[in-house]
Amino acid sequence: MVMRRIAVVGVLWSLVLGGCSQQNDKELKTVKSRYEKVTKDYQGCQDRIVQLQDRSVKLESALKKIRAQPCELELDPVTLEVKARPNAVVHSGARPASGPPLNLAKVKTKVRSVRPTLKTCYEEAAKRDKVLGSKAQKVTLKFTIYNSGKVGNIRVLPYVGGGFVPCVKRALGSWKFEKFGGYPKSFMQRIQLTPK
Questions:
Q1: CA-based angle 73:74:76, to the nearest 5?
Q2: 91 vs 3: which has the higher pLDDT
Q3: Helix H segments across 69-130?
């Protein structure tokens, strides 16, 4: 678009110069100043494009560095998600249990309260497994609360050695919630394990 304008201005300039002898100097100066302004604006746009390209490269580089660094949350949950149980998983003849719904606020409170225990589990496991104690890693804790209020199907993915998983299973396996209606609820808790 800018190049077309410059070309049009160039053509007009040549026409103006051709009829220069018939026009006064004032009109010639006006056209000349407009041409210089368009040329200056075009150069300014080109400089701005280069600046933006340089900034884009710097921002992409900074973003790569940030993504490469592990999250510094020590055993703090990143998310707590409830997964709806798809109808395809329900066995034929199975009906949802009757009763009030599961109190999600109590589940979140319970998950927050287990952080010190998870930290202790991790520290003890890191003492037994030197590799575990030498690098940070993200794990996902999954568990299911059944309608009876008991917690089961406790998993840590990917598997963490040094006795971490059995310790977590003992901690969560002791939880007890009130009975609730509907289907069992599955939860997922993301955790960052950071060695000291």
A1: 70
A2: 3
A3: 104-113, 115-128
* Structure token pair of residue 124: 């003890």
Segment 79-89, tens digit of pLDDT: 333 343 444 34
The pLDDT > 90 percentage for the chain reads 5
Q: Which amino acid is present at 51?
A: Q
Domain ranges of the chain: 2-68, 77-193
Token reading at 158: 């990917």
Do residues 107 and 187 touch, judged by C-beta distance below 8 A? yes
Residue 146: phi and psi, rounded to 5, are: -85, 165
Cβ 136 vs Cβ 194: under 8 Å: yes
What is the pLDDT, as a whole number, of residue 115?
A: 83
Q: What is the pTM of this model?
A: 0.52
**The dihedral sign for the CA sequence 39, 45, 48, 54:** negative
Token pair in block for residue 149:
């209020």
Q: What is the distance between the alpha carbons of residues 191 and 77, in angstroms, rounded to a whole number?
A: 5
The tokens for 167 are: 């310790």
Token reading at 118: 């998870």
Contact predicate 153/144, CB 8 Å: yes
Element (H, E) at 82: strand 77-83
User: Mind listing the pLDDT tens digit for each residue in 145-193?
Assistant: 888 999 999 999 888 888 889 999 999 999 898 998 888 888 888 888 8
Three-state secondary-structure class, residue 196: coil
